[in-house]
């Protein structure tokens, strides 16, 4: 029950997502998408964060991530926020911890691993949508 509710919230969030490519190449988004997918299998958000921090401030990849927008915020900032503080995903999805604790037949354990999983799923879905929109704008 709790997983279904989280899935529903992610789906609703992604359906309402506003992405503005602003010059980011679909290839750049696809590279990041591969990193996120591999982080889901192993490494978690820290792997994505490490990749982002390896991008120098003047590299074309970073500039593209800084000009693209997700929900009005710079894609770079949105990604950093999701990866540095995975627990912030609950607020991003409009769910509070008390609400999550009462879902299902028993208590839902809101540990870091669940927040990290949901954060990466949210990033993954947002990037998939962004790639689709960037290709249609290209």
Describe, in plain words, how this protein is organized in 3D.
With 138 residues, the chain is mostly helical. It has one domain. It is 68% helix and 4% strand. It contains eight helices and three strands; from the N terminus they run αβαααββαααα. It has helices at 2-16, 26-41, 45-54, 60-67, 75-84, 89-92, 97-101, 112-137, and strands at residues 19-20, 69-70, 73-74. The longest helix has 26 residues, at 112-137. The radius of gyration is 15 Å and the shape is globular.
For this structure, the quaternary state is single chain
Radius of gyration: 15 Å
In DSSP terms, counting alpha (H) and pi (I) runs of 4 or more, how many helices?
Answer: 8
What gross morphology would you assign? globular
Strand content: under 5%
Structural class: mainly alpha
Mean pLDDT: 87
- Describe the main β-sheet briefly: 3 strands, antiparallel
Helical residue percent? Answer: 55-70%
| SSE order, one letter for each helix or strand | HEHHHEEHHHH
Domain count: the total is: 1
What is the total tally of β strands?
A: 3
Q: Order the strands across the largest sheet as they lie in space.
A: 1-2-3
Which key features would you list for this structure?
three-stranded antiparallel beta sheet, mainly alpha, 3 strands, 138 residues
Structure at a glance:
The protein has 138 residues and is mainly α.
């Amino acid at each position: 029950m709790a997983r279904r509710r989280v899935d529903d919230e992610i789906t609703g969030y992604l359906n309402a997502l506003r992405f503005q490519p602003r010059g980011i190449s679909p290839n750049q988004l696809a590279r990041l998408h591969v990193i996120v997918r591999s982080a889901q299998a192993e490494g978690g958000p820290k792997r994505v964060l490490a990749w982002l921090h390896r991008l120098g401030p003047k590299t074309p990849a970073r500039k593209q991530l800084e000009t693209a927008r997700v929900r009005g915020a710079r894609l770079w900032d949105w990604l950093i926020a999701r990866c540095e503080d995975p627990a912030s995903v609950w607020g991003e999805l409009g769910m509070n911890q008390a609400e999550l604790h009462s879902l299902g037949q028993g208590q839902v354990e809101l540990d870091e691993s669940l927040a990290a999983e949901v954060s990466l799923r949210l990033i993954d879905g947002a990037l998939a949508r962004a790639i689709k929109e960037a290709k249609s704008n290209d």
